[in-house]
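Sample pair:
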Amino acid sequence: MTRICTMLILSVILLTACSLSKDKGPCDGIICDNGPLTFYFKLVDPNTGHDLVYGDHAIIPLDSVRNHVKYQAIDTLVRVKQVIDPVRKRAYMIFMMTGGPQSLRVGTPGKAIQYKVDVKTKSAGCCGSLVSDVLLNDDPAPITRDSTGIYLIPYKL
């Protein structure tokens, strides 16, 4: 019994000695490897909400949707990636923010539209950031999201 009490007292003393210093934050000592910021989106008809790149109402070819990157000496168009969920019969696209001014370029036969994309972020844990809002063409109202968090970019035909 004496040994148990002694071990218990030593354990309590040891645990109280190992408490965090008030000078240290919860992220001290963590090394972060931040990659490009990603947001998920669909191009939709503003009147009906139908997906214009995937499904029965698709009229925009996927390879015509590009991420236009201008950063220092780089000026290039990068294809967006599409993720398809065949079970739910839906899809969404992925836009990678790599720094500097970026835009989303959509080309359809006889027409091309370029959206200036501004992504607002919020902190996520020690190392990350998440997209909190997406603004298009300096419009102060952020675009809406569906119930799964996919941003719905209206595309007028």
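The radius of gyration is 24 Å.
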